[in-house]
Design a protein that fits this description.
Largest sheet of chain B: 5 strands, parallel
Radius of gyration of chain B: 23 Å
Largest interface: A-B, 49 and 43 residues
Number of domains of chain B: 2
CATH superfamily of the largest domain in chain A: Thiamin diphosphate (ThDP)-binding fold, Pyr/PP domains
CATH topology of the largest domain in chain A: Rossmann fold
Strand content of chain A: 15-25%
Helix content of chain B: 40-55%
Number of domains of chain A: 2
Shape of chain B: globular
Number of helices of chain B: 14
Bound molecules: thiamine diphosphate, magnesium ion
CATH superfamily of the largest domain in chain B: Thiamin diphosphate (ThDP)-binding fold, Pyr/PP domains
Strand content of chain B: 5-15%
Oligomer: heterodimer
Strand order of the largest sheet of chain A: 3-2-4-5-7-6-12
CATH class of the largest domain in chain B: Alpha Beta
Structural class of chain B: alpha/beta
Distance between the termini of chain B: 91 Å
Helix content of chain A: 25-40%
Number of strands of chain A: 14
Chain lengths: ~350, ~400
């Protein structure tokens, strides 16, 4: 990576790639491994060039076995490394779940904090890219439900860089969900400015911290649309469309599911008095359900209408030609906004 | 491509010149296949009566020779065997008295338990299972700290990093991958740490067993996989787990050497494991050792062994008791005398009585600690839940106070 000039354009993918190479540069104990991450640079090229730059001891291909990848990462973390492992696709992380649930999530608690596992599990997730079965799952709820894991999911290029750096430096294990449909999205972010901010410890460069920092990405006064990861951009588009109908919608990006920023959530809902929660995953027993429950518990007296969810249907992810019917889109969000008892 | 036998592409093959297996086998003057295959019969150095087996009948062969450990080491092993047996039986009794929640006993398997600890250097690592209490104690972890989990006070009571002993836990064979990762990290830093990765016979059917052996072999890391084949996985006999000629044979498919040893023969277990650890360290490659042994007591206190095995089978294994064999051998060799034996018994008794005392005392755990280690810094939600429990506890304390 040559040092970027002030007005360069970065993609979500290059932000993640640069975050890893900067972290490897900054800390010798950071190692990256997984399936095809070495010579090929990963099937999405997120680890492109890391082996070339840092050698096969720092970024390497493993045998094809997800439990093996996660389980050996546990051992590496026990023995002083900070592994960043890649699961090739959301649904192919499932063979690793025993290691994730029974050890990665529990090791610190089991050992009374004596063995912490500072590791990152990167998972490309979600749909909208025409992927076939097993390549489009939104599996964040499984991990968020498991105490001991942190769950991050960036929605912008700058957040991708800063949140991955923070994930790698976190003492707890972080499951890092990368919305695949955003990989090729671009922004006028200068990665070297972000690097400087992060490495000089600027407070504003820490986007999660111990308690989470949800961010208002669009201000509004009538309703809060709460979202995260791949759905944030859809929520913003819906807010823009709603503005044409005279509804002023605020959009909140949660950024992390764990830690969960209840303060920002309560702040926006108390301000607007209405809430719609948007997520790609099936709605039943989901992160969207959790957000909705929290709003009900904390903001009941500020609410002018029931809290609604706009999520994927409660079905296995559909085939590529049918996914548009499944994913929450602008119209479905606008329909939900219409239902928020505006009569008064 | 017309003749697949002669045109096999060398770049696709692994046990080629230059590979660790090739080099190791060449150093013994045997082929890679001969090196990887277990010796023709179980390695045994003491017969069931405790007499030394003539060296040409020990089951070893070229490339599979195992020197008998020094007298000093054997005496130390014997002391650990006696202590181990005492610990097993004391804990078994404590479970029946309701002082322990559970205790998976290794009564009968103590030679394996002790061998696993004594084959390692202080800088090495051990990854035990739930049944390996005696190994963990033999490695130097305070017995009371090990018992924390069986008493039900906390999941793991010792510091894994201080002792270089993984936290004992129950998801079968998951710890084998941790062992491989620890060894891999050490190798990347240029340290010559050997890791002993332990599991049972039934556990070899789990996927993580396979993945761990394969990762270890592919990354050429010094892990010794140590399988205690005690014949059963709870009620299921080995014949229902595997039809391989032996569990040691499983090594070959990964390009690793396997060895099978009499697991009730302290001398042979120690000799075989020490050699395996030495080879792993020298050549930076993994090996698999299967020890054939027997679990003399039920799987745990919750188990009814009469449903799946008969008394006769258990009685037969009694005759191969590792303690008796070792004691006879050491006495006949003049390594163990009456004074030493009395000292060893006394030391074991001390451990048992400290266990008795500690496990009958009321524990003083702090309920609020359940929130403290989930994350490096507790989340706001956990802090709120902690405050809730704290409040409940205080109200309970107050109402108990007013009732009195
Ligand atoms: C993944 C998993 N499945 C099932 C169990 C329940 N279980 C506990 S011990 C055991 C038998 C294991 O047998 P073996 O590996 O031979 O070890 P042994 O108990 O004989 O020492 C089973 C099935 C478990 N602990 N973990
Ligand atoms: Mg068994």
């Amino acid at each position: 990576m040559s040092t970027a000039t002030a007005t360069s354009t970065a993609t979500f993918a290059s932000a993640l790639n640069t975050a890893m190479s900067d972290a490897m540069e900054a800390d010798e104990s950071v190692v990256v491994f997984g399936e095809d991450v070495g010579t090929l640079g990963g099937v999405f090229r997120i680890t492109d060039g890391l082996t070339k730059r840092f050698g096969t001891n720092r970024c390497f291909d493993t045998p094809l076995a997800e439990s093996g990848i996660a389980g050996t990462a546990v051992g590496m973390a026990i023995n002083g490394m900070r592994p960043v492992i890649e699961m090739q696709f959301d649904a192919f992380a499932y063979p690793a779940l025993e290691q994730v649930f029974s050890h990665i999530a529990k090791m610190a608690n089991r050992t009374r904090g004596r063995v912490r596992l500072p590791m990152v599990i990167r998972i490309p997730y979600g749909g909208g890219v025409g992927g076939v079965e097993h390549h489009c799952d939104s599996s964040e709820a499984y991990y968020a439900h498991t105490a001991g894991l942190k769950v991050f999911t960036p929605a912008t290029v700058a957040d991708a860089y800063l949140m991955l750096r923070e994930a790698i430096d976190t003492e707890d294990p972080v499951v890092f969900f990368e919305p695949k449909k955003l990989y090729w999205s671009k922004a006028d972010d200068d990665l070297s400015t972000l690097r400087e901010a992060y490495e000089s410890g600027t407070e504003s460069s820490r986007l999660v911290g111990a308690q989470g920092q949800a961010v208002v990405v669009r201000e509004g006064t009538d309703v809060s649309i709460i979202s995260y990861g791949p759905s944030v951009s859809t929520a913003v588009k819906a807010a823009e469309a709603a503005a044409e109908d005279g509804i002023s919608a605020e959009v909140l990006d949660m950024r992390s599911v764990v830690p969960f920023d209840e303060v920002a959530l309560v702040r926006t809902v108390e301000k607007t008095g209405r809430a719609v929660v948007v997520a790609e995953a099936q709605g039943f027993v989901s992160v969207a359900s959790e957000i909705t429950a929290r709003i009900q518990e904390r903001c009941f007296h500020s609410l002018a209408s029931p809290v609604l969810r706009v999520t994927g249907f409660d079905i296995p992810y559909p085939a590529p030609k049918l996914e548009e019917h499944h994913l929450p889109d602008v119209n479905r969000i606008l329909d939900a906004l219409d239902e928020l008892q505006w009569e008064d | 491509m017309d003749d697949p036998v002669t045109t096999s592409d060398p770049s696709h093959a692994k046990a080629e010149q230059g590979s660790r297996i090739f080099e190791a086998s060449r150093s013994f003057g045997i082929t890679p296949e001969q090196y990887m295959l277990p010796a023709q019969q179980q390695i045994q150095m003491l017969d069931p009566e405790g007499a030394l087996v003539p060296s040409d009948e020990q089951g070893t062969g070229p490339g599979h020779e195992y020197p008998i450990p020094e007298a000093e080491v054997l005496l130390k092993a014997y002391a650990a065997l006696v202590a181990g047996r005492r610990i097993n039986d004391q804990n078994y009794a404590l479970v029946r008295q309701g002082r322990l929640a559970v205790y998976p006993s290794s009564h009968g398997q103590e030679a394996c338990q002790v061998g696993a600890a004594l084959c390692l250097e202080p800088g090495d690592w051990m990854f035990p299972t739930y049944r390996d209490t005696v190994s963990v104690i033999s490695r130097g972890v305070d017995p009371l700290d090990v018992m924390v989990s069986f008493r039900g006070d906390w999941h793991c009571g010792y510091d894994p990093k201080e002792h270089r002993v993984g936290s004992m836990s129950t998801p079968l064979t998951t710890q084998l991958l941790h062992a491989v990762g620890v060894a891999h990290a050490a190798k990347l830093r240029g340290e010559d740490t050997v890791v002993l990765a332990m599991c049972g016979d039934g556990a070899t059917s789990e996927g993580d067993f396979h993945e761990a052996l394969n990762f270890a072999a592919v990354f050429e890391v010094p892990v010794v996989f140590f399988v205690q084949n005690n014949g059963y996985a709870i009620s299921v006999p080995l014949s229902s787990q595997s039809v391989a000629p032996s569990l040691a044979h499983k090594a070959i498919g990964y390009g690793m050497a396997g060895e099978q040893v009499d697991g009730n023969d302290m001398v042979a277990v120690l000799a075989t494991l020490r050699r395996a650890v030495h080879l792993a360290r020298e050549n930076s490659m993994p090996l698999l050792v299967e020890a054939v042994t027997y679990r003399m007591q039920a799987h745990t206190n919750a188990d009814d062994e009469t449903r799946y095995r008969d008394r006769e089978e258990v009685e037969q294994w009694k005759r191969k008791d590792p303690l008796v064999r070792m004691q006879r051998y050491l006495t006949s060799e003049g390594i163990l005398n009456d004074d030493a034996a009395a000292e060893i018994t006394e030391a074991a008794e001390k451990v048992a009585s400290s266990l008795r005392q500690a496990m009958t005392a009321d524990p003083a755990e702090n309920p609020l600690e359940i929130f403290d280690h989930v994350y490096a810094e507790p989340t706001a939600q956990l802090l709120a839940q902690r405050a809730q429990l704290d409040d409940e506890l205080q109200r309970t304390a107050t109402s108990e106070g007013t009732q009195r």
